[in-house]
Specification:
With 261 residues, this protein is mainly α. The protein has 11 helices and 2 strands, in the order αααββαααααααα.
Length: 261
């Protein structure tokens, strides 16, 4: 659904956090959810969109969701080439129909119930809040090769100081749009799917673990499997984490991340 709604990663991550917080609320109050799983997923996406300045109207959520939920398996050939089963979409839901009106009321009521369970607190920090900061610090030791660019001084490779016009002229992409940045964002979204990481670890520690895993994937881990796992790892956490991170907590986060599928 997030793909169909063109929602940013931050919104989807926030929706996962709402979902985990809601299930945590149910477990602590020993109650069962009055909301079915499908409606709950839509309610979390809708609330997350509003809290991250990416709102979607009920019709934009309910119409594609209804078609997806009621899609039918397409006729299969006698010898299908793969195990994947194609689906044919259900007829579109009309916004003037009683069914749509009922679904809209249910979605709004579910959002209100979710809000109450969250204590009307929608601003939860996510790993995405800290990824760019930590990734920038982690890449500082590498530096960048000098080149004939518009900057002919000691800061010419510090692309964060360049103006937007200079970046456009010289084809300098934003940090989070690089391969390392996209990898860090992917790990951040993966982390938000984990109830354990969302509910039991601070977002700063999760973000730092995501940066570590992303750099390891990109070959920028400076001995990820070697000395940095020991004393060097402690120094890396101190420098990149700004001296505000417990090393053991970071190690636990990395272990959980590596265990995610």
């Amino acid at each position: 659904m997030a793909d169909l709604l063109r929602l940013p990663d931050e919104t989807l991550a926030t929706a996962y956090i709402y979902l985990h917080k809601y299930h945590r609320f149910l477990s602590t109050t020993a109650t069962t959810s009055p909301i079915d799983p499908y409606t709950l997923a839509l309610a979390t996406l809708s609330l997350a969109g509003k809290s991250t300045e990416s709102p979607r109207p009920p019709s934009a959520i309910l119409l594609p969701a209804h078609r997806l939920l009621h899609a039918q398996p397409a006729p299969q050939p006698s010898q299908p080439s793969s195990k994947a089963r194609a689906l044919t979409a259900a007829p579109p839901l009309a916004t003037s129909s009683p069914t749509y009106a009922a679904l809209r009321r249910t979605l709004i009521a579910s959002e209100l119930h979710l809000l109450r369970a969250l204590g009307f607190e929608l601003r939860f920090p996510t790993p995405f809040t800290f990824l760019a900061r930590y990734l920038s610090r982690a890449l500082e030791p590498y530096g960048a090769p000098a080149h004939a660019g518009p900057r002919q001084h000691e800061h010419e490779h510090e692309y964060a100081r360049w103006s937007r016009e200079e970046k456009e002229e010289w084809g300098v992409t934003e940090l989070m749009e690089t391969g390392a940045g996209r990898a860090a964002r992917s790990w951040g979204l993966r982390a938000c799917k984990s109830l354990r990481l969302v509910c039991f670890y601070p977002s700063r520690a999760v973000a730092l673990g995501c940066v570590w895993c992303a750099l390891g994937e990109r070959g920028l881990g400076v001995g990820v499997e070697g000395e940095w796992e020991g004393k060097g790892g402690e120094e890396w956490v101190r420098v990149v984490g700004g001296g505000k991170m417990e090393v053991e907590e970071w190690r636990e986060v990395v272990a959980v991340l590596r265990g995610l599928k």
